[in-house]
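pipeline/complex-builder :: batch 7 item 3
reading input block
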Amino acid sequence: MSTLATTDEHISATRAKTIQPVWVRVMHWTNAVAMILMIMSGWQIYNASPLFDFRFSHDITLGGWLGGALLWHFAAMWLLMINGLAYLIAGFVSGRFRKKLLPITPAGVLHDVRAALTFKLSHDDLSVYNYVQRTLYAGIIVVGVLIVLSGLSIWKPVQLYYLVALFGDYPTARYVHFFCMAAICAFLVVHVALALLVPKSLRAMIIGR
Ligand code: HEM
């Protein structure tokens, strides 16, 4: 009886400490790999027909040339779309998005931005996202949806003409796709820096606890 009680206590203590469930971890890292492949091959594709007065250095692109980069981009696209869709469905159905990312209030965001800038933001309870994290994560999920929709528009503009119409026209969809990429890169810089500043959050995203 006492062994059973101890085992039960042990199981519930382990459960209580699980911060990132296994599905979140698997999908998060799959998404990170897919995003990085898409961004690096996307830079090579951009270089073939730049929108602005600059090109990305060949050293940080993937694919070697336009044809190779397109192969990488379309291969990683399936990984990103299937994994992203599964994450969105699981996030809504399990109630995770509602519980972890909401509410987001202007007062809460302002308070936590101030606290972060003065290094007073608490990281004691990793199971609750602060308002800065909530805003960044909810924002990047929206950007993730936008980059996929604008990408689909410029990939199959004839078949998916209604998606192109959603963005206005083809050139606008291309600009939206580019600026979503820029937003994801900016997010990544802040996100990775914060993960390194609070290493226990990185550990939780790797081993769950
Ligand atoms: C490759 C480098 C990356 C690292 C080191 C990293 C690290 C982390 C860590 C440690 C967390 C835990 C949350 C926390 O306690 O703050 C997290 C959550 C999250 N990350 Fe990343 N991440 C990376 C890439 C990405 C990318 C590319 C995206 C999307 C574009 C992304 C989107 C998210 C989201 C949405 C969450 C919240 C997940 C949830 O709670 O459902 N991450 N990340």
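note: The chain is about 75% helix and 0% strand.
queue -> next item
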